[in-house]
Amino acid sequence: MHPPHPSHPPYPSQLPLLPRFAVVGNPENRRVALFGDAVCAAGLPAPRVVPWTDVLRAGGADFAAEEIVRVDSPGENPEVDRLLRGGEDPTRVEGSARWYAGFTAALHGLRGGIRLDDPDDLAVLFDKRLCHGALDAAGVPVPASPTSGPQGAPVRGWDDVRALMRGHRMHRLFVKPAHGSSASGVLAVESGGGDRIRATTSVELAPDGLLYNSLKVRRYERERDVAAIVDTLAPEGLHLERWLPKASQEGRAADLRVVVVAGRATHAVVRTSRSPMTNLHLGGSRGDLEAARRAVEAAGARWADLLGVCEAAAACFPRTLCVGVDLLPAVGWRRAAVGEVNAFGDLLPRLTGLPGSGAEGLDTYAAQVAAVLRDVARPGRGRAARPQPRTGTPHALARTDA
Questions:
Q1: What is the pTM of this model?
Q2: Scanning 51, 315, 356, 398, which has its CA 20 to 30 A from the CA of 136?
Q3: What does the alpha-carbon distance between residue 42 and residue 264 come to, in Å, rounded to a whole number?
Q4: Interior angle at CA 380, CA 374 and CA 386, nearest 5
Q5: What is the pLDDT of residues 70-120, one digit of tens each?
């Protein structure tokens, strides 16, 4: 791990009276535009945008001591992808380990400024094994995993996956690239009678053995095809998790994306799908959040406890202002586990804040700007106060991996 950067408080401290923002991002990306709109709507100067291409080519970037620096996603830009992964085809699945090495190195090349995130936090968030281990160590409910944490079992190929499935009695599991995002390379694997194997994934296995991301979710019924995919991805790092049966809404599997800003769950959406992956770009759709809340309470649980689990997950990354938590409600809606924590999980356009969150009427970006401005207005303007976690979490919800 890198030593702490001296200008990385949990949230901005010693802020200027008139905050000036800078964003490391892709200038053409809607994430950058939406955050810029939120800053301007708050009556502040438009953020200075530092393109990822400039950062990667120069080996870093410099910021004024009073600039408040937001790091945004480097995704959706072919040139940035080429610089990070080294490949020419952005549709390829392979290259996540090189992407991770380039991304984390670039984070430590950002010099000066007041950061809204922390390079070490982001390094853990983009390694599913380390992230799972951090959550588990903090008592956050997570699916069982033999690869969790820095001492987790290595996965060198399909033979290791098979052995771990047998040793941990995992007949259904997710196989995830350790540094992947947006479900790239993820396989939902099931084993049946006679040692039959089936995998559901968006990976397209080409005849030459190369792997491509696809918008079509497909099933592989031949074990040799599943093995070929896993063997190709294993050298870049793989994470295994027990596949937990999820709650449903209108006959579709359901989970939630919950955005946590400055320690408080501010925004949430239900995502539903007929496949194991609920990502919207893979055919998932938004569900009914109010119906989900009613289902939780009808089951005898508390909606606040589900949100509290997400806040407990975010508390594992105290030096980062905003994360998106993927919450997996169990069948019956009484319990939940955290599937992933996303550094760039705040892209929920036009969604306003949850009642009682303090972000009512604000989108995810405006909520983050408001959190910074609250720190400016706070007497003494020292280290920003985190909202207190909701009571009864995370242990109020029983673990779902038994």
A1: 0.90
A2: 356
A3: 20
A4: 45
A5: 999 999 999 999 999 987 788 899 999 999 999 999 999 999 999 999 999
